[in-house]
Write a structure and sequence with these properties.
The chain is of the alpha/beta class. The protein has one domain: Metal-dependent hydrolases (TIM Barrel, Alpha-Beta Barrel). It contains ten helices and eleven strands. Helix 2 links the parallel strand 4 and strand 5. Helix 1 packs parallel to helix 2, helix 1 runs parallel beside helix 9 and helix 9 crosses helix 10. The longest helix has 17 residues. The termini are close together. Pfam families: PTE. Belongs to the metallo-dependent hydrolases superfamily. Phosphotriesterase family.
Length: about 290
């Protein structure tokens, strides 16, 4: 039977509730020096705030080697009453030291599959998705390597593949490789950060291909992308792709508004534009399908 693979075990789709489809409780990267998110008390406060606002599940997209703090996630889930889904996978090469990349480069599919089915390290916690990344308007050699590893792990497990799109670009290149050459079903692919590149034509083409489209996290550089997000979601819904849409907070630094902001500020704004019924589909129905396998 399909279920979401949370840090506390399998959870039926109808028990996930309102889902933050892309966020981070913990994350570290050399690209964000001095902005590490590794404070357990802060993570607990954010989770509790999210739960108090009606949130039911947070999907942490932090992949291998980026400070996931997997061992802390079960206690945080129990303490807050919020389900947490953890990720395996690998981000862009710039997020890792060369020594780490060299140690896993030839065994990515094996690593991802093991974390999905056997558990992460000695924690016993299984990952519930595979997180990888594209490049800026294309795919570099590292992206191709990690996408191939993700596709192989997906074939053997059925786990969804979530893809960081750099500044929201490269969606069609990702789909060409994953779904065209590598044969991954588009419904198992989640394209992240599409709000950061408000190209409605690309959004439409990705939806027509069958992929899931995540609009996740406020913009830092171009706030025009934020106020265009309701129009992008409405255009996709009106075109018949309401079942492809997801929302997330994408907290990546301590000053990111994050998951409480998603429910406190973003959702009421979207409700005015989209209506309660569509918002419920985006926050509850769609992620319940996407994150169960």
């Amino acid at each position: 039977m399909s279920a979401a693979h949370t840090v506390l075990g399998e959870v039926a789709a109808d028990r996930l509730g309102v889902v933050d489809a892309h966020d981070h409780l913990f994350i570290q990267s050399p690209r964000l020096p001095g902005q590490e998110m590794d404070d357990v008390e802060d993570a607990a406060a954010r989770l509790s705030a999210f739960g108090s606002l009606g949130g039911g599940t947070v999907v942490q997209w932090t992949p291998y080697g980026m400070g996931r703090r997997i061992a802390q996630l079960p206690a945080l889930s129990r303490g807050s009453g919020v389900h947490i889904i953890a990720a395996t996978g690998l981000h862009q090469a710039a997020h890792y030291p060369d020594t780490l990349l060299a140690s896993v480069r030839d065994r990515l599919a094996e690593l991802f599959f093991a974390e999905l089915t056997e558990g992460i390290g000695d924690t016993g916690v299984r990952a519930g998705l595979i997180k990888v990344a594209g490049g800026f308007h294309g795919l570099d050699a590292h992206a191709v390597l990690t996408l191939r590893g993700a596709a192989e792990a997906h074939r053997h497990s059925g786990a969804p593949i979530a893809v960081h799109l750099e500044l929201g670009t490269g969606a069609l290149d990702v789909l060409d490789l994953l779904c065209g050459e590598l044969g991954v079903a588009p419904g198992s692919v989640i394209l992240g950060h599409l709000n950061r590149s408000p190209d409605f034509t690309v959004h439409r083409l990705a939806a027509e291909a069958g992929a899931n489209l995540a609009f996740d996290g406020p913009s830092r550089a171009n706030h025009a992308t934020d106020w265009r997000m309701p129009d992008a979601l409405r255009a996709l819904a009106d075109a018949g792709f309401a079942d492809r849409l997801l929302l997330g907070g994408d907290t990546v630094t301590p000053d990111t508004p994050g998951m409480p902001h998603l429910l406190r500020r973003v959702v009421p704004r979207l409700e005015l534009d989209l209506g309660k019924g569509l918002l419920e589909q985006i926050l509850v129905t769609n992620p319940a399908r996407v994150y169960t396998w």
